Amino acid sequence: MDGHLKARVADYQQSDPRASLQQLATSIGLFVLACALMYRALDISYALTLALSVPAAGFLVRIFIIQHDCGHGAFFKTRRLNDLVGAICSVMTLTPYRNWRRQHAGHHRSWNNLDLRLAGSDIYSTCLTVGEYRALTWRHRWLYRLTRHRAISNLVLPPLVFLLLYRVQFDTPKTWKRDRRSVYWTDLAIGAVGIALGLELGFRQVLLVQVPVMALASIIGVWLFSVQHRFEHALWARQPEWSTTSASLRGSSYLRLPKLLQWFSGNIGFHHVHHLNPRVPNYRLQECHDGIPELRATPILTLRSALLSPALALWDEDRQKLVSFADLRGHAF
Fold this sequence. Notes:
Layout: H1 2-10, H2 17-41, H3 46-71, H4 79-93, H5 97-110, E1 128-129, H6 130-134, H7 138-148, H8 150-163, H9 177-201, H10 203-227, H11 244-251, E2 254-256, H12 259-264, H13 271-276, H14 285-291, E3 300-302, H15 303-308, E4 314-316, E5 321-323
Parallel strand pairs: 1-4, 2-3
Antiparallel strand pairs: 4-5
Helix pairs in contact: 2-3, 3-4, 3-10, 4-9, 5-9, 8-10, 9-10
């Protein structure tokens, strides 16, 4: 069953150069246009500039999805072209392409696997069990709760990750020498672009335009990533019960977004398909989902249910479900 389903999904992993180039041109072109309008709007009203940051952030999310596809070797047929485009996108997304690609590959090897949870700074693709949480000291419980509070994890941390944390090698192993160097090469490229824009438009103006766009795009992107693995009936399993197919169909969701938001997010709502085969380019994910009936049995989230879902931060091994801190009310912290 698993092999047959994966073989059927593999039929959709061929990229279309014309579709890839069209998506690349429209995404970057519209992002540049939106930013240009924001700079023009500075002379009219900063409120108008901030209003324009919303579509600009949407285009930047779409550019990140292209970078994401390139990291999986899905956007173009050759690795060289994928890496070139991914590196170009990384200057706009402030995300060091090579280093991020290798870190993200770790997520795809072990997402929702309780025995292979990765160590490091990523709080969005791992969680503690209820038993592990209760074994912590009160200080560590407080820190864990603080970093998982919605205001912190969804609003404060994402901009800090993209604007500051990605500027250094933070948890990158020392043996990943080329990946570590890529962080600083990306920083140099970002610095060069920033200086050029600053000299031409003014450094204050650049900050007033680019920081809100990056902050909003990071908040949207991180939320899209985390909510699709942290929903009420998501499957998290120990290694003997974990498989790529079960983790894809039950540990990843189908986030059913309005068509416009689906376009801006590069079809990432079809996350179950993406995890089953990361080589399927984003513009073929819906085609794959619609063409294979078995894929439509995955948990469905709507925009409303995703936004209103409780903050689930712990895996209850007794009840086999994700739970919130409120579910532990009455426990002595």
